């Protein structure tokens, strides 16, 4: 018996010690893609895990939520019949006094929406109960859940017009945290849908003071430039009461080729930020650049001013209880300091080291606005500080890479764009091992984007910046050429030709180790991307004849120049790509 049934006794037991032992074994089992999740008693196993979630022992409750999350991601839509079995217990955990349990409950609710079912299937069932729950944390938590739902799956996933009246009632809640969360959720809906929400609310006959509070909040969102394209482009219709359905791109069903692997940190990814086309919420390099100087006015008179302002920003960014709008403002202040010449003081770089953890937390924040501004500031720093930002980038790079696979497009594209700025401007050899390590990720989205970054790196950096890691790069490119993901293979093949411009002998050796089919694919990549017909010089005698016959130019890649524009068909090593390949074989 090598399926879920072998854990039956440990799941249905009331013994917390046995539950803890089972948890350790069960999580390892579920995280192994080759393990079988079949069971003859699946309904009883799920009911048993729901009992874990309801346990008065918070550790057991957390274990139950974690196992259910893993199981949902393994079963996918096959879990749909059991969704109602776990909803009530999961919602109740939104009111738990422990942050870890509440966060795990939020993650499980999103997993029950996808891949198990759909956002409307789940949220329509939990909203009436949760929004009126006796526990204030549950009422607050369901608002946070709605915010995350919108950022992950878009406004089309729900009929928001049915939810807004309940949110307006929560503005009169006896608890201040619930009131704040309800107002923030209304603002999030406005950010996605636009003026339809304002028009509908104005018809509700609200007291003037409450209406003014809401409209001021909406105005702040609108002037901040944080509106989604779907909201800005939406037009008023006669059926404003039905906004939410059909207002924007449907994100409730990510692509089928998305990675299904589940990590312990519950990081989920569905689309590639680096390779996907721009859509609702997507951010571009141009949008980043335009945001660089959108900062509050400050005055820098001395190094002490720089130190004080950065220390204040660090204290607010490091405190998750700080209002998200204040955190966004402090991230902007960090850009304003450099714009006002703060980087000319030694105190700036001393404080910058201390800011690394604060920015890492900002990048991991659940608030898309906080993540967006943090990534814009990182990109701005990379462009202005260049190699002086090397240690900061070394610390922040893993968090940015993990952000790429986030299912909320605004977060994913924020991370991917910041990474492109770093590769473009911060030429530090210490970043290369981090990129190479993530080419081994279980997520095809992360692997794909890392190979895209390696391609950019090989085009933009000088040989002496990368030669220390030539062997590791060679091995990574070889693995990428055989990657299970087709787009990763394409980027790896492009990276091979750029690698050959730097390290001719290593490229020769790599090519010789490939089987005939991989060699043919490399030749095809070169031929398909070619803009010339021939190479003027003689081919290298070390390479097979069939290989030399096909080499007439190097592939065109779409990386960045230092001035922020896309590069043309000229390589970093001088001359056209055809000329470089000609030198390679001479």
Uncertain runs? 235-241, 245-281, 531-586
Query: What's the total count of β strands?
Result: 0
Beta-strand content bin? under 5%
Report the biggest beta sheet as strand number plus sense, adding barrel if it closes.
Answer: none
Ends distance: 62 Å
Mean pLDDT: 81
Specify the number of helices: 29
- Rg on CA atoms, Å: 26 Å
Proportion of helical residues:
55-70%
Main structural class = mainly alpha
* Helix-strand string: HHHHHHHHHHHHHHHHHHHHHHHHHHHHH
Shape: globular
Structural summary, described in words:
This protein has 586 residues and is an all-alpha fold. The chain is built from 29 helices and no strands. The chain has helices at 8-12, 16-30, 42-53, 58-75, 83-92, 99-116, 119-130, 136-153, 164-170, 176-193, 195-202, 208-223, 229-233, 285-291, 303-317, 324-339, 346-363, 368-385, 390-403, 409-425, 432-438, 444-460, 463-466, 470-481, 486-502, 504-513, 516-529, 545-550, 577-585. Helix 3 runs antiparallel to helix 4 (58-75) and helix 10 (176-193) crosses helix 12. The relative contact order is 0.06. Residues 235-241, 245-281 and 531-586 have low confidence and may be disordered.
